[in-house]
Design brief:
Shape: globular
Strand order of the largest sheet: 6-5-4-1-3-2-14-7
Number of strands: 20
Largest sheet: 8 strands, mixed
Number of helices: 22
CATH superfamily of the largest domain: Pyruvate-ferredoxin oxidoreductase, PFOR, domain III
Strand content: 15-25%
Number of domains: 4
Radius of gyration: 26 Å
């Protein structure tokens, strides 16, 4: 099944090789060159949990129109080292051209139906100074295949390696060698690039990690804490590297409980805190999140999912932590949970999380996953004028009571030392002044006050986004990072009776959800876990049972083709669920 959408021309390149060969650096460079030339790019990384060895890979799709989703289709495979992973070998088809050094791979690809295109890569890299330049040679091949002019590529290399003249020269030589090979490889095929498509400078390359971090800054984040844990570490490292620029205090702490408790303390002191972690770290934060709940402390927690239980698969992806996000923390207290479906949404919903946390004085969870964090593509520069400005904290009066319900049921938030009043806080149940209380009436009053916020949060919940016909019979329901994959698979299916309903807020769910689900003859829930966590949430909330489910839990993301195939099997009466 061809994943190209009508009206779009795109190529799918896969570069594979051992960790340490600079695949990620070359990926970044390559995408920058193509984007600045006016082409659209999409890149998604797959890497093993090791520093050296193994076989990492990156998929780079480049097209004349926007490409936003992972595709199984490989037009070209560029392996650098033997031992290509099974999941990549399974994607090789008759249409795949394998560009590799025959002397390095021997008969590894014997038996595949794909044409083998020999390239003397080992000899090329010897002339350049070593295998470390192999990835840049292959980048040159890819660029030559797209038709982007070599002079502008060399300008980009000089800029990319600015201040390192010798490194820039050697990489330019490596890229030029590959470029000439790529031009020959293109032959009489029409290049993707043409002179009229030069970029207008209004697009940037953005990945999920940087989008979350930048969105947090745009939302007023002033404090961030975390303990390194893939795939959430990128947010912490980005904020740390830019702490002075963005005026954010960043702490890499000794463990996850320290991170969340420090963030709760920062919130009490008036900061707008972010905690970033993955499933195992989030599990350790349950008590601290519950503390934020009873203290009514604004807190944003970024939970980037990977397969569990326990350490699971540290560098793979899954949507298996929805239940954890929904039910973490003992006791009952309100929360909102956002699940961005795109890099742009990761930016805006990260900012929105701070707004909701601040206004409702409650924890907000941003639920992402490894696939989204390590995917990047070209996006329009975000319009920050759409964001709500950071809230203002007023000085406390002498008779200030921290937990006195205001006109809307939400207390006025004060900061210690700012005003005349005392700003109390406690992990116990408490009265309006934050004094410990075991009075039954006080308990009921405070609990209802806190839980009442959930109705207000629900009133401004994000509605799900419908892609496809409004008069659908079949409805594919998904949440989070599967959104763009499901959307492209819908175009690939080409059915006029089928639509996609994508959720980027999973708690509380928008009230329009029930009408969307009820209108479908068949509801198919697509999610990256084994037990149907989102399907259960929909049924528990609205009492509507899905007719079919499509689940994936092998550590890999859905592909456009796989999704379209499994939906098609269901709609045509096959096994597909």
């Amino acid at each position: 099944m061809n994943s190209q959408i009508s009206g779009t021309r795109d190529l799918s390149f896969v570069l594979s090789g051992a960790a340490g060969l600079g695949i990620q650096t070359v990926e970044e460079f390559l995408c920058r060159v193509l984007c600045r030339a006016g082409l659209h790019v999409f890149a998604s990384r797959e890497y093993m949990s090791r520093v050296r060895g193994g076989n990492n890979s990156t998929e780079i799709r480049v097209g004349t129109k926007a490409v936003r989703a992972f595709s199984d289709r490989m037009d070209y495979l560029f392996p650098l080292t033997p031992g290509v992973r099974v999941n990549i070998r399974r994607r090789i088809s008759q249409a795949t051209k394998i560009v590799a050094d025959r002397g390095v791979f021997g008969g590894e690809f014997d038996g595949t139906e794909a044409p083998f295109v020999p390239i003397p890569l080992e000899d090329m890299t010897k002339e350049l100074g070593g295998k470390v330049y192999a990835a840049m040679v292959m980048a040159g091949v890819m660029i030559g295949r797209t038709g982007v002019p070599l002079p502008r590529v060399l300008e980009e290399i000089e800029h990319f390696f600015s201040g390192r003249a010798e490194v820039a020269k050697t990489n330019a030589d490596a890229c030029s060698l590959g470029y000439r090979f790529g031009v020959e490889l293109r032959g009489d095929s029409e290049p993707l690039y043409h002179d009229a498509m030069d970029s207008d400078g209004k697009k940037i390359l953005l990945d999920g990690s940087d989008a979350v971090a930048l969105g947090a800054v745009a939302g007023g984040c002033s404090f961030a804490a975390g303990y390194p844990m893939s795939p959430a570490t990128g947010v912490l490292t980005f904020l740390s590297a830019n702490a002075d620029r963005f005026h954010v205090a960043v702490e890499q702490v000794e463990d996850e409980p320290a991170a969340v408790n420090m963030a709760v303390g920062a919130s009490y002191a008036g900061a707008r805190p972010l905690v970033t972690t993955s499933g195992g770290g989030f599990a350790l934060m349950g008590e601290g999140i519950s503390l934020a709940g009873i203290m009514e402390a604004p807190l944003v927690v970024h939970l980037s999912q990977r397969p569990g239980p326990a350490t699971g698969m540290a560098t793979r992806t899954e949507q298996g932590d929805l239940d954890l996000a929904l039910y973490s923390g003992h006791g009952e207290f309100p929360r909102a949970i956002f699940a961005p479906g795109s890099v742009e949404s990761a930016f805006f919903l990260s900012a929105k999380a701070f707004d909701i946390a601040e206004r409702y004085q409650t924890p907000v969870i941003l639920l992402t996953d490894q696939y989204l964090m390590n995917t990047f593509y070209d996006v329009d520069i975000p319009d920050v004028s759409l964001l709500r400005p950071a809230g203002k904290i007023d000085p406390t009066p002498a008779d200030y009571r921290r937990y006195a319900p205001g006109a809307t049921g939400i207390s006025s938030r004060g900061v210690p030392g700012y005003g005349e009043g005392l700003v109390g806080a406690d992990s116990h149940e408490h009265d309006e002044e934050a004094h410990i209380s075991e009075e039954i009436d006080v308990r009921v009053s405070m609990n209802e006050k806190r839980l009442g916020k959930l109705d207000a949060i629900r009133q401004e919940a994000l509605p799900p986004v419908l892609f496809g016909p409004k008069d659908y019979d079949n409805l594919i329901v998904c949440f989070g990072s599967t959104m763009e994959i499901a959307r492209e698979s819908l175009a690939l299916l080409g059915r006029t009776d089928t639509a996609v309903l994508a959720f980027e807020q999973v708690h509380p769910l928008h009230e329009a959800t029930e009408a969307f689900l009820s209108a479908a003859t068949r509801v198919i829930v697509l999610e990256g876990n084994a037990t149907g966590q989102f399907e259960r949430l929909l049924r528990g909330t609205f009492g509507i049972r899905a007719h079919h489910s499509i689940r994936k839990y092998d550590g890999l993301q859905f592909s456009v083709e796989e999704t379209a195939r499994r939906v098609s099997e269901i709609l045509e009466g096959g096994a597909g669920a």
